[in-house]
Design a protein that fits this description.
The chain contains seven helices and 25 strands. The strands form six sheets. Strands 1, 2, 3, 6, 7, 8, 9, 17, 18, 22, 23, 24 and 25 form a 13-stranded mixed sheet that branches. Strands 12-16-15 form a three-stranded mixed sheet, covered by helices on one side. Strands 20-19-21 form a three-stranded mixed sheet. Helix 2 packs antiparallel against helix 3. 15% of the residues lie in helices and 35% in strands. By secondary structure, the chain is an alpha+beta fold. It has four domains: 139 residues, no CATH class; 81 residues, Phage tail protein beta-alpha-beta fold (3-Layer(bab) Sandwich), CATH 3.55.50; 99 residues, Beta Barrel (Thrombin, subunit H); 49 residues, no CATH class.
């Protein structure tokens, strides 16, 4: 099993000695040294004996399901154990501070390289395993965590009427986030003016909530911001990317399928405001009569007009007014069929649609479509790889898009 691990060293551990390093009496000579690329990464995948260093890894990218379709992704984390029997990864062998520098982890399968994680190192701890084995234990946080490290002072108020996607870009511009490390949709909601004061990630999440969009860091390091409509139009979210079950032609899942049938996610009353004075309510009276009031509380949104604020409440309330049996997570062990399962676990991202089938004794096959909302990879040398996906029920409605010849049909499509 081949992994590629690259670390953003500026010295040591095999960095090209011809790169220019300021204030270095040997490597800081103009006309002798040359400028390094913008992103200098040292490949530490193998040791000097050619042995793969990765002994174990765990990558966790999770989400919190809020009211109805609201989803908030947490910063992803990496735990990685690298073999270091030659000692060249020991902190005493690397002449620079390590925590805080960049790390990239990829997986090679069938000649293709798949990004698994990009972020910054939190800890880099040597461990001597008596008598003659050593490792380094590494933890890291992905680039969503990097965005959370920026705080902005109050700016002149601006951006009234700005689309949500434009506001996300403005937040990233303010913290100097590279344009090439973004994938930002346009957005459909317009916003009130802002001063940008506060934490960059908190501000971006407020915008995301107003849009009912999603915000995360991709494995390749790009900040992905998805607007409300993209979930209903992107091919990987619109059509099933794989059916997992135990029947003919289905991709196998392993262990126990997560199932929930609870009133915990029931919502039949949503209250919103944009100015703290006028409150808009959206309710399902039949559901309230049967189950009582289930409300997530009052949402204060940075939206710039009443119509969109009221529509937001309708959209968030519409989906979960009755309890539903749902699949919450599924686990894939690639050893069941590596040729078909590795491409699945290495390419799926948040919002991708899959189908899962359960066949309990005495019950007809139960097939449900779901969006992937959490991705957890684990590996132990030499071969054990498992991936667990957190799931959210996928929309079965055909949404209404005004002026669209296919999705703009009254009595056929629903408002989103």
């Amino acid at each position: 099993m081949t992994f590629i691990v690259k670390v953003g060293f500026s010295t040591g551990a095999g960095v090209d000695p011809s790169y220019l390093r300021l204030d270095d009496p040997v490597a800081g000579l103009l006309d002798v040294q040359h400028l390094a690329p913008d992103d200098v990464f040292t490949d530490v995948s193998t040791d000097s004996n050619g042995m793969q260093r990765v002994m174990s890894l765990s990558i966790d990218r999770s989400s919190t399901q809020g009211a109805g379709p609201l989803v908030e992704y947490a910063a992803g984390t990496l735990s990685l154990t690298l073999r270091d029997d030659n000692g060249d990864l020991d902190p005493t062998s690397i002449a620079e501070p390590i925590p805080g520098i960049a790390i990239q982890v990829s997986k090679v399968w069938a000649g293709n390289v798949y990004s698994l994680f990009t972020g910054t190192i939190d800890t880099w701890e040597p461990e001597h395993r008596y008598p003659d084995q050593a490792v380094v234990q590494i933890t890291a946080t992905d680039n969503l965590g990097a965005v959370s490290g920026y705080n902005s002072d109050e700016q002149a108020s601006s951006g009234a009427g700005q689309l949500t996607g434009t506001r996300i870009n403005a937040i990233l511009d303010l913290i100097g986030w590279p344009a090439g490390q973004r994938d930002i949709d346009s957005g459909v909601v317009t916003l009130a003016a802002t001063t940008f004061e506060g934490n960059a990630l908190d501000n971006a999440r407020d915008v995301t909530q107003a849009e009912v969009g999603q915000l995360w860091a991709r494995p390749d390091g790009r900040i992905r911001w998805r607007d409300r409509y993209d979930l209903y139009t992107a091919a990987t979210s619109l059509t099933v990317q794989g059916t997992f079950g135990s029947g003919p032609g289905e991709l196998p899942w392993t262990g126990q399928l997560g199932v929930s049938y609870s009133k915990a996610n029931l919502i039949n009353l949503v209250r919103t405001t944009r100015d703290g004075t006028t409150v808009f309510e959206s309710s399902d009276e039949e559901s309230r009569s049967r189950y009582g009031d289930h409300t997530p509380g009052l949402f204060t949104l940075p939206i710039d007009n009443d119509a969109q604020t009221a529509a937001w409440a309708d959209f968030v309330r519409a989906r979960d007014s009755v309890p539903k049996l749902i699949f919450t997570d599924v686990t894939i062990d690639v050893r069941a069929d590596e040729d078909v399962l590795y491409p699945q676990v290495l390419t799926r991202d948040f919002g991708d649609r899959i189908a899962v089938v359960r066949r309990p004794p005495g019950v007809a096959a139960d097939t449900r479509e779901a969006y992937i909302r959490g991705i957890h990879h684990s590996f132990e040398a030499p071969l054990a790889w498992q991936t667990r996906w957190e799931l959210e029920p996928a929309s079965t409605d055909s949404p209404l898009f005004l002026d669209d010849p296919v999705r703009g049909l009254l009595d056929n499509n629903v408002l989103i």
